[in-house]
Structure formats: C-alpha cells, structure tokens
Design a protein that fits this description.
By secondary structure, the protein is an alpha+beta fold. It contains 8 helices and 9 strands. Helix 1 crosses helix 2 (53-61), helix 6 (158-169) crosses helix 7 (181-188) and helix 7 (181-188) crosses helix 8. The chain is globular.
Length: 212
C-alpha cells in the first residue's frame, strides 16, 4: 500500500544561511536546488539569479563560502559553491521533505515540496519546530489516481505546463497585464525568447485540442 503523498509549502525567515543573508543585503532573488550534504560536512549549493555583480562580490566576500564558480547564460548567473554553514532547508530534508523548488528573496526562503505520509510530515514538522522562523504555509493531498495533471490531460510538456502556470499566477494573462515576459522568464530561470517559445507552443497545443 502506498502512503498518501502530501504537497507542502514552507516559509523560512530569520535564517542565517549565506543565501538568505545575501538576498537581504543585495536585493536579488535566488532560485536554488536543494543543498547536497558532502562527506566532509560541507553543503554543495547550486543556484541562479538575474545577472548581478553585487551578488557575486557579496558571495565571494563571505568567509563561509568556498570554491565559488560563476557562469552566465541568457542574462542569468549560475553559481556552484561549498558552504560551511548548513541551511535550515537541510534539516527539513533530513526529516523527510522532498524539495521541488527553493527560492530566496529579501532574506526569506519559500520551499515547495512533498512528503510521503502523515508520519513523515510529523517528522518534518518536528525538524521545523527545532529551528527559528520556519512556518508551514500550506499542506494538501496529491491524489495520483483522482486527477490527471494538465500536461497529461492536454498533451503538454512539463516545461510548457510550468511556463503557462507561472505566467497565469504572475498575472501575465490579465488585462491589463500585471507583469512582463521578462519577469516571467526570470522567475522560470530561462531567457525571454525561451519563455515565449514555450508559451506559444503550449498555447498552440491547447488550441489545437480545443478546436479540433
């Protein structure tokens, strides 16, 4: 029997990890992969942001950061480094949280993920309770057998679904528009041209199925 899978969203404030502090100081949003614990006790951090020399300098000056590597693609900086200071999200992962997206902005982190079963959720909550500033924002069940995902139902690629969903949530389709194509592309971590291409291909796939 497969345990119930639950989707969860956490918000972390007052975390003293390097990525939290640097977004507070520089004012740049960072999209990160879950930190990977190494055998030597260091965390491998991989993340990206809009191109910012101030962010790079701040990270380079942080004594907790080692072996900082930066590359630039489509107007975004992509970073890899080792951190001597464990992030709060590491404790939630150790408790059983499966992280899907992790974003740092203005010194706070938003974590979207999943847990398998109520017992695992309890363990994650206990880990959260032992840290400062961790708050559970949302939790809801994922019924794999009850509903198809939009990408399955409408024959979209996962990238096209993510593109359309993010644009909708950010108000790209409202009249008047509440955001720009550049802003949605930055949120997705891709170039403007890649965003527009995925959006148009996704729209074309939807319209063809609606009006065939």
């Amino acid at each position: 029997m497969i345990d119930e899978c639950l989707a969860v969203e956490f918000r972390v404030e007052n975390d003293d990890c390097p990525l939290s502090e640097v977004t507070q100081a520089v004012g740049v949003e960072v999209s990160a992969q879950p930190p990977q614990r190494r055998g030597d006790g260091y965390d491998l951090l991989q993340f990206s942001s809009p191109a910012s020399d101030r962010l790079t300098r701040a990270l380079d000056d942080d004594e907790r950061i080692s072996y900082l590597h930066v590359s630039r693609t489509d107007g975004r900086n992509r970073y890899r480094c080792l951190s001597k200071h464990p992030c709060v999200v590491r404790r939630l992962i150790d408790g059983g949280l499966i992280v899907e997206t992790l974003r740092y902005r203005d010194g706070a982190a938003t974590i979207f993920g999943a847990v398998v079963g109520r017992d695992v959720l309890k363990g994650v909550m206990e880990a959260a309770g032992e840290t400062v500033g961790v708050r559970l924002q949302r939790v809801y069940p994922l019924h794999s057998e009850a509903k198809e995902s939009p990408s399955q139902r409408w024959d979209l690629t996962p990238a096209q679904e993510e593109c359309i969903r993010t644009a909708l949530e950010m108000g790209y389709f409202t009249i008047p528009r509440e955001t720009s194509s550049e802003a949605v592309a930055a949120e997705l971590g891709i170039s403007k041209s890649a965003f527009l291409e995925r959006l148009r291909r996704g729209e074309a796939a939807l319209f063809e199925q609606l009006f065939q």
